[in-house]
Specification:
By secondary structure, the chain is mostly helical. 58% of the residues lie in helices and 5% in strands.
Length: 161
């Protein structure tokens, strides 16, 4: 069981669209540059996301991609499924033929784990990820202000002002 690069890139790209698409379509090149994802590979991922109805393409000058659904309507699980990924902890990929054509003794355990992971990912929306990023940026800004204030206090103390 593992989340592939394709799945990670798809989630990252969708989050980037959510964060930067407020003012209009976002180009693949912009997402690729911001996120460090190879552009050609990202084009393939966007094609899958578009076919699955997660994003829409806008042609022409200023074109690019936009989310086709609201942030609350898109779960991380939806994104992974859209690009042909999924989280499956079974050795047999859910076919129950893991041990020479029969179900192995631990199949149900791994199958239930897969279901739990999918439930977890289904309950995380793009909206919640956007909120997490906003919270992290806000905290980072406050930390910068706090450290800047400390430097100012140190400077005042050092100059006896």
């Amino acid at each position: 069981m593992r989340l592939t690069t394709k799945g990670r890139y798809a989630v990252t790209a969708m989050l980037d669209l959510a964060l930067h698409g407020e003012s209009g379509p976002v180009s693949v090149a912009d997402v690729a540059e911001r996120q460090g994802i190879p552009g050609a590979y990202l084009e393939q991922i966007f094609a899958r996301l578009r076919r699955a109805g997660c994003i829409d393409s806008v042609r022409g000058p200023g074109g690019g991609y936009v989310l086709s659904l609201g942030l609350e309507a898109v779960s991380i699980s939806n994104i992974l499924v859209a690009v042909g990924e999924g989280v499956d902890a079974t050795r047999c990929h859910g076919a129950a033929d893991c041990q020479e054509g029969t179900q192995c003794m631990t199949h149900d355990l791994w199958s239930e784990l897969s279901d739990q992971i999918d439930d977890f990912l289904r309950n995380i929306s793009l909206a919640s990820l956007v909120d997490r990023v906003a919270d992290r940026r806000r905290e980072a800004g406050l930390a910068r202000i706090a450290s800047g204030g400390q430097r100012l206090a140190d400077l005042i103390q050092a100059t006896n002002l």
